Amino acid sequence: MTLAVRASEGVGELVAELSISAGWVVDPATGREGPADLVVRDGILEALTWLEADDAGGVDGRGIVVAPGFVDLHAHFREPGNEDAETIASGSAAAAHGGFTTVCLMPNTRPALDEPSVLARIQAAAGASGSPVRLLALGAVSAGRAGDQLAALGELADAGVVGFSDDGAPVRSPSLLRSALAYAGALGLPVIDHAEDLSLTAGAEANDALVATVLGLSGWPAAAEESAVARDLALLADVVRDVPGARLHLTHLSTAGSLDLVRRAKAAGLPVTCDVTPHHLALTDEWLAGARRWAWEAGEDPWRDEAIVAPPYDPSLRVNPPLRSAADAAACLEALLDGTADAVATDHAPHTLVDKQVEFGLAANGISGIETALGLLLAAVDAGELPLARAIEALTAGPARVLGSRFGRPIGLVEGRPADLVVFDHSEAWTVGPDTLRSRGKNSPLVGRELSGRVLLTVAAGRVAYQPD
Ligand SMILES: [Zn+2]
Asked: Does the reported pTM lie above 0.85?
């Protein structure tokens, strides 16, 4: 396999010429995967030529892989309001390093994205960053994300938001969510809910199970998520009778029970979609105790298994929803395999050290995860838990379909269109660390760990988004 790039001076520059011969190409839009040659000229994907296996010299999916640029349905770039944690520019650089070329930003900035002027600020910052990574935005469901009254959904839709969410928090009031589903549905947009019953999670720190008990952390019950999912689905079923365009997307589902509720709702024909995060399918609550096994390697009791290799209470593991059991993580994988989960979304949540390096229960929730998403999915692929093509689909065609017409371009590797792709070396490892992460948020439990799938090049809209120094 050879990879040749010419005249790409740096980020933002048009790719004058890129030729890849005998790379392993995965294109979920056509369902095709195999060795292929690929030529990009002046930013346009000029040719994608599939090769016969005999001509490809034993190339397979363990070497250089070419895929459409990844799409993240859920990220926090913190600008405006908390630029110490992340900016539009640093978040875009991190996204490109992770292989992402389209990112949906959550509206829990300060101020919240509850009116078009905030979106204009974000778009101006995106333009000034010079990054070709495309940023889409969610508008807030409620004014100021306060949960009291609806934000100006119509104005936000006219300004170009791709959906509505109060993420960071659930839409607490059932009647408000009901109205939001109806109005957003009439506008042709989804409501993305963070499913959590706050009355069940006040003071909660860790998944309500053995590890929390042993560590003395207060329990975060699965029922807090599942009861919210059940409520949301009931409201959707009610609204969709009058507003056929109503759509609900449930983000970062983390329990077997939640995914089962969505599985049954989909089977009943409800217009619901959902995503799972890389950390909820690859990590479990035993990491809080100091175990570092992947979810598919985990047992019942990390102490009995003598699996403890790190100090307990690492605050980088505090996340909402919390890391769950091995059975829940397996359910996240199962949901990807059977299509219950439509996408993997990163919930990239960068924080400053000040907000994170404190006592576990006081740490801000979240993992800086947009650069490690590919590596965590490849860990599952390498363990035989997930086919490579499904992992790529969950990062590309899956989330693009959730966005529907708001994705705004053809899905996949389409000849004659601006090139939008990622090239990574599946077998080449890189070490996660403060120097290798482009995000300002260094809050990752994977710091110090090697992940496979080093990204060699990300091209967004025909322009260089990332290439190694
Ligand atoms: Zn959330």
From this structure: yes
Place of tokens 């809910």: 193
CB 159 within 8 A of CB 116: yes
Please give the DSSP secondary-structure letter assigned to residue 433.
S
Whole-number Å distance, alpha carbon 264 to ligand 1 midpoint, is 23
Q: Which is the catalytic residue, given 347, 355, 420, 425?
A: 347
Distance CA 344, CA 27 (A): 17
Choose among 298, 300, 236: nearest CA to 265: 236
Q: Is 452 helix (H, G, I), strand (E, B) or coil?
A: strand
Rg (CA), the chain: 21
Amino acid at 226: E
Residues lying with their CB under 5 A of ligand 1, a single-atom ion: 167, 194
Q: 167: CA distance to ligand 1 center in Å?
A: 5
Tell me the C-alpha distance between 414 and 423, whole Å. 16
What's the rounded Cα separation, in Å, for the pair 99 and 101?
A: 7
Give yes or no: 242 in active site: no
Residues 6 or more apart from 163 whose CB is under 8 A from it?
Answer: 104, 138, 139, 184, 189, 190, 191, 192, 249, 403, 406
How many angstroms does the Cα of residue 300 sit away from the middle of ligand 1? 27
Q: What separation in Å is there between the alpha carbon of 194 and the centre of ligand 1?
A: 5
> Going residue by residue through the chain (469 aa), what tens digit of pLDDT does each one get?
667 666 556 899 999 999 999 999 999 999 999 999 999 999 999 999 999 877 778 889 999 999 999 999 999 999 999 999 999 999 999 999 999 999 999 999 999 999 999 999 999 999 999 999 999 999 999 999 999 999 999 999 999 999 999 999 999 999 999 999 999 999 999 999 999 999 999 999 999 999 999 999 999 999 999 999 999 999 999 999 999 999 999 999 999 999 999 999 999 999 999 999 999 999 999 999 999 999 999 988 999 999 999 999 999 999 999 999 999 999 999 999 999 999 999 999 999 999 998 999 999 999 999 999 999 999 999 999 999 999 999 999 999 999 999 999 999 999 999 999 999 999 999 999 999 999 999 999 999 999 999 999 999 999 999 999 8
Distance (Å, rounded) from C-alpha 445 to C-alpha 351? 13
